[in-house]
Specification:
Layout: E1 5-10, E2 13-18, H1 29-43, E3 50-55, H2 66-74, H3 82-96, E4 101-105, E5 108-110, H4 112-118, E6 122-125, E7 130-132, H5 146-154, H6 156-165, E8 169-170, H7 171-176, E9 182-183, H8 190-202, H9 206-221, H10 224-239, H11 242-252
Parallel strand pairs: 2-3, 3-4, 4-6, 5-7, 6-9
Antiparallel strand pairs: 1-2, 7-8
The chain binds ligand T3D.
Ligand T3D binds at residues 23-24, 26, 62-67, 69, 80, 82, 108, 110-112, 132, 134-135, 137-138, 140, 143.
Length: 262
């Protein structure tokens, strides 16, 4: 385990903190590998029922570490294999994570850092939050799923504008255009609000949440037949859970359900 990625477990909530504050949590190979591998472990970790992704210090994440990147370019290595080795698996793991993921976006999220936030199920921001699709500023196209997530959130035309102009979007505007799900009044509240939401979700029907995420991604991309097939499969799985039976029993007994995530 590396201290570049801090892993905190509080009950069933796991908080992952990108921890290179002096470089605005820019993503080095070691940090990307830690994030990729930890997300892989959390996928099947049943003691984890919600994940918060945060950054240490004043920024969420400034994307690819350009210092490390420059060292590779200067050494003549222009083949950008980190996309397939790191960014793509991280994106797949975030989107396919069978439990809720919440990004606590304090300060700037740029480049691949912005992309990470867009793959979370919720994005909590504060007054200092700025989202910057910085790729074109350094002569690159988008990555880490941004060409998939951004048009889904803001529509094709606006996604194109944000990627081509590569200007920071401030917190209020980000909220208005759907890049943030919630905005706190104070930056200090960003992480606690994200963790509070995660705790609420971690006490919910985890299997159903995973199924909802999966069926929505299929329904969003496919035909009605694809959606109906995914829904049938999802209900077959959820209908067989202890949580479903206990929740129906609780409803009939006029009690509050307790979900155990199975
Ligand atoms: O092969 C591949 O990697 C392809 C994949 C690429 C994916 C990508 O993410 S491409 C996009 C890479 N990121 C960027 O282009 C963002 C670059 N940074 C900025 O535009 C600005 O720093 C910010 C808008 C993020 C923040 O601006 P500001 O004025 O608040 O802070 P600053 O003064 O520019 O930065 C503070 C420090 O963080 C500074 O270090 P210093 O001078 O105090 O020692 C700065 O160099 C460092 N920093 C910021 N971003 C990065 C970085 N260091 C390394 N890599 C960075 N991306």
């Amino acid at each position: 385990m590396t201290d570049l990625l801090l892993v905190d477990r509080t009950d069933a909530v796991v908080t992952l903190t990108l921890n290179r504050p002096a470089a605005m949590n820019a993503l080095t190979t070691d940090l990307k590998e830690a994030l990729r591998d930890t997300l892989g472990e959390l996928e099947s970790d049943r003691s984890c029922r919600a994940i918060v992704l945060a950054g240490a210090g004043r920024a969420f994440c400034a994307g690819q570490d350009l210092q490390e990147h420059m060292e590779k370019l200067s050494a003549g290595n222009t083949r950008i294999d980190t996309v397939s080795a790191h960014y793509n698996p991280i994106a797949q793991r975030l989107v396919n994570m069978p439990k809720p993921v919440i990004a606590a976006v304090r300060g700037v999220a740029a480049g691949a850092g912005a992309s990470l936030t867009l793959l979370a199920d919720f994005r909590i921001g504060g007054p200092s939050t700025r989202l910057l699709m910085a790729f074109a500023n350094v002569g690159l196209a988008g990555d880490t799923g941004v060409s998939w997530s951004l048009p889904r959130l803001v529509g094709h035309a606006r996604a194109l504008e944000l990627l081509l102009l590569a200007e920071p979007v401030k917190a209020e505007a980000a909220l208005a255009m759907g890049l943030l799900s919630r905005l706190t009044e104070d930056d200090e509240q960003v992480l606690p609000v994200a963790q509070e939401l995660a705790a609420r979700l971690a006490a919910g029907p985890t299997v159903a949440y995973g199924a909802i995420k999966r069926e929505l991604s299929i329904g969003d991309a496919g035909t009605l037949s694809d959606a109906l097939a995914a829904e049938a499969q999802a209900q077959a799985i959820c209908g067989a859970t202890a949580d479903h039976k206990a929740a129906v029993e609780a409803f009939l007994a006029k009690e509050k359900p307790v979900f155990e995530g199975r």
